[in-house]
Request: fold
Amino acid sequence: MHDVLQQRAAELSRLAAKIRTSLDEAESTVPSINEQLDKLAAVGMVDFQIEGPSVYCRPTGVSSAFTDDFVVYQAAIVMPGGVGAVIWDANEYHEHANRPYGEPVDLAPRFVPYAKCPTLVRALLVSHAGRMLDSLMHDVRLLGS
Reply:
C-alpha cells in the first residue's frame, strides 16, 4: 500500500511539473500574438471585439465575508488591445450576458491587456485565446469576401 501511494505521489509530481512547463510555454506565446494583433490594428483592423467565456470570479473586497459584490473576468480580444480580459461587476455581467442577442456593447473601457491581468487570470486566458483568435480571423475573412 505504501509503495502504491509513493508511486502515485511521484506520478502526481511529474504531471504537475509537466502542466507547469506546458502552461509557461502557452503563456509565453500570448505576448507575440498581441504584437501581431497590434500590427493588424496599426493597418486599420480596429473596432473588433471577440468575447470569450467568463474565466474567473472573485469577491470585490478581501473576502466574501465582508461583501456580496463580485468581480468577473471575461476572456476577450479587443482591437486595438489584443488578448486580455474584460472586467465586470457581477451584476453588470449578468445584465450583459442576458441582453438581447446582437445588442452591441463597447468592451474597450473595461478591457485589461493580458500583460496587466493577474497571474491566475492570465493562466486561465490561454486556454481560450486560440478559439477567440479563430473567431477574429473568421470575422475578418467574412469582411473580405
In short: Residues 2-144 form one domain.
